[in-house]
Amino acid sequence: MDTGLTSCGRPVTVHIQLPPGAQAAGHARQAAARMLAPEPALCPGPVAEDLVLIVSELVTNAVRHAKGPYALTVSMEKGRVGIAVSDGSVDLPGRRHATEETAESERGLKIVRALGADLFVSPSDIGKQVIAVVTW
Description:
By secondary structure, the protein is α+β, with helices and mostly antiparallel strands. Helix content is 32%, strand content 29%. The chain has a six-stranded antiparallel beta sheet, with helices on one face. It is globular, with a radius of gyration of 14 Å. It has three helices and six strands; from the N terminus they run E-E-H-H-E-E-H-E-E.
């Protein structure tokens, strides 16, 4: 279920539980796009496009490398957005075994950083949150 607050000059926050598996990224992209589209005064169109890509990369990483349940929280205020993707794994990004390393390893996080996001990882009761903060 989507949970949102209207802006009225205050931060807008949406929190949704994501379905398991491959459907999670698409569901998250749609939710983020719905949230960002009606708020051009808070988030310009080109920035919104980058943010939807960041959401997609973070959720895809969670589904590929961590167990569920998955959730997405997006909090937006003028000039800044925080994106948090929760999963059920305590394994931290970048801490995979050498046998799992491939040329594609960590590509999603590199894309997120290239789009200007600061990345953080925070433990939670059931796993962790990977958090991207973008300012403009």
